[in-house]
Design goal:
Elements (H helix, E strand, L loop, with lengths): L15 H18 L3 H9 L4 H8 L1 E4 L5 E6 L1 E7 L6 E5 L2 E7 L2 E7 L2 E2 L8 E7 L3 H22 L7 H13 L2 E3 L2 E3 L2 H13 L3 H25 L8
Antiparallel strand pairs: 1-2, 2-5, 3-4, 4-7, 5-6, 6-8, 8-9, 9-10
């Protein structure tokens, strides 16, 4: 076996692995962007609640930005004035974005926003990391269910079901998010970390936390599985 300093070993460029990963990821996002509109729309229209939202907002498939596939609902009038009485209020529908950045994919869910109200978070990261176009396409039906649920939950005028409320609550706790222009880690892991720090203060609380932590992870995993999430893609 050759040692790292063996002069006879073929020289490998230190950035070779980096460029190889970038090339592979660009190929994968290219495959995703080449997915025909008909296939995307078929997946959309098989999602419960999508047709109603499309009739309200209209729906767009956008490949304008390089290395990005964007599925978004448009704008709608809210048929009432803004709080300052200067114009008719409008609401933009939610958006699902698949994008390649650096050496990894990100799947981002943006909420509905209006001149009257908005969510605390700017967006949710459904997935961050290396993956493939096939896995993203296979996961698209679940992402579209999230998109429809997020529309109902984040719109000021729409009603959401109990299932949708729980689904978005789970996403808000288990996914990284953007908030006030900053990247925020998942709330569930921050909660567990806080418990872990608190639990080390005494032997009793340490024992309690050591029991509760795996239970909390198990419960979260079961909840995510019930809601149809791929927990392995949430980092």
């Amino acid at each position: 076996m050759s040692s790292p300093s063996d002069p006879n070993e073929p020289r490998r460029h230190p950035l070779a692995a980096h460029f190889k990963r970038r090339s592979e990821m660009r190929h994968e996002i290219g495959l995703l962007r080449n997915l025909p509109d008909d296939e995307i729309l078929a997946a959309c229209r098989s999602t419960p609640g999508f047709d109603d939202l499309e009739s309200i907002y209209n729906f767009y498939i956008d490949r304008t930005h390089p290395h990005t596939l964007q599925l978004s609902f448009g704008n709608r009038s809210m048929f009432r004035m803004t709080p300052d009485l200067k114009k008719t209020a409008a609401e933009s529908g939610p958006t699902l974005v698949y994008s390649f950045s650096g050496e990894q994919f990100v799947t981002i869910l943006y909420p509905a926003k209006s001149d009257i109200a908005r969510t605390h978070e700017d967006h949710l990261f459904l997935q961050i990391g290396e993956t493939s176009a096939i896995k993203l396409i296979e996961g698209m039906p679940g992402d579209l269910r999230d998109l429809v649920a997020y529309a109902h939950v984040s719109s000021v005028d729409m009603e959401s079901s109990f299932y949708e409320d729980v689904r978005i609550w789970a996403l808000r706790w288990s996914c990284p998010r953007g908030e006030d222009g900053k990247f925020e880690k998942p709330r569930i892991w921050l909660t567990l970390l806080t418990l872990a720090k608190f639990g080390t203060r005494t032997a009793t609380t340490s024992l309690i936390v050591s029991i509760l932590k795996p239970m909390g992870v198990l419960i979260a995993g079961v909840l995510l599985a019930w809601l149809g999430f791929e927990a392995g893609l949430i980092q």
